[in-house]
From TrEMBL:
Keywords: Carbohydrate metabolism, Cellulose degradation, Glycosidase, Hydrolase, Polysaccharide degradation. The lineage of its organism: Bacteria, Bacillati, Actinomycetota, Actinomycetes, Propionibacteriales. Pfam families: Glyco_hydro_1. Substrate binds at residues 19, 119, 161, 293, 419, 426-427. The keyword Hydrolase applies. One of its GO terms (cellular component) is cytosol. This is Beta-glucosidase.
Amino acid sequence: MNVAFDPGFAWGVATSAYQVEGATEADGRQESIWDAFTRVPGAIAGGQDGTTAADHYHRMAEDVAIMADLGVGYYRFSVSWPRVMHADGTLNTAGVGFYDRLVDTLLEAGITPWLTLYHWDLPTSLPGGWLNRDTARAMAAYAVAVHGVLGDRVRIWTTVNEPWCSAVLGHGTGQHAPGHADPWEAFTATHHLLLAHGMTTRALREIDPDARLGLTLNFTPALPADPGNPADVDVASRIDATAHRMWLDPLFRGGYPDDVIRGAGRAWPADAVRDGDLPIIGTPVDLLGVNFYTTDRVRARLPGEAAPGPLSIRGRRIPSANLLAPDAVVVDRGLPRTAMGWEIDPTGLRDLLLRLHRGWTGPAGIPLFVTENGGAFPDHVADDAAVHDDDRIDYLRGHLAATREAIEEGADVRGYFLWSLVDNFEWAEGYARTFGLCRLDESGGRHLKDSARWYSSVCRSGGFEG
């Protein structure tokens, strides 16, 4: 079977600032909430942090050369807000200079820059963080300042990446920075993140009408264990409400889903949702980024069955991330899993892309891009220092085939970005989970894995033999 994509299909790789840059104290960079969170005992596996990460800040030219050799056409990276803005809201010219050089280096190599403004590393100098409405305004100002330096060359801008993680894992479960566990905080942060997206989109549109603007959402579809059982269907729907529709509906349909507001009850931040906010959030975009790694099959708790208790991770008790469905029970389907423990289900990506196109983006007339997809596997280094990662190649092969199937069935999908270019700091998992096409040795040297060479052939040919 030949899996081929159209010539204009965008092939890329993705990273984020805190995960790869390191240099956390260089050139006047502020502290971020992730710098602070990594100091919390038990928060990060191995007590690790992003101080060095993949040292991309100092090895940027080398990394761009690797991308050029691989033949990728796009590099999706994020700008570190605390690196480019001083605490008083003025631009840090030394910090933004790194991205100025990065963009020039990419363009010289024939690689299109795809810039993400917010990938979780919020400055700690912002009072209240995402619980404060002023943070949304601050983000719009930060975006305009960065555009003033890079906007003549960067034509694709993502406002926020995976706001569900920032809101729910950061404020609802405590697994991510800033490490809080309060449903009201999670819903409040949700609204302010969406408001920040809308305010930023409007601000950039005003100064640059021709820029391509969008945001990236993460999706983990919840499938009922028994589609004929109303209880299982209900619990899957309640997960979907806060994982997906709470984000998509205000962006594309003008308001939050009624079942989210009802289900949240007293935790819903009615005072935070002000007149005029929803039209701002619904400001038209040019594209939607889709981050996908897995699906979950879930069932309702049986009568008399003990309720799922909070997880205990490194001595910290973590409540359910399913804000409206803490009673959900995940069913093991016996599928292969990645090192993250996530089941491998490529058909879930196909079905998701079709659902998004038919329900939200298609009617709005905007395309989809798979902006993150990839697998962490326990890479084994051979005697010759090579990494023969056939499991990662199989993962990519399946998900690219699923993407192609979605396109053939009508989904308007125009690009695929592999996560990630290099092994990096994987948030609460530290450095124990490796997603990269490049392995890092102890001195930070880059070594291409077999999957890098395979993906390179895909990028250059526009497909592969199934």
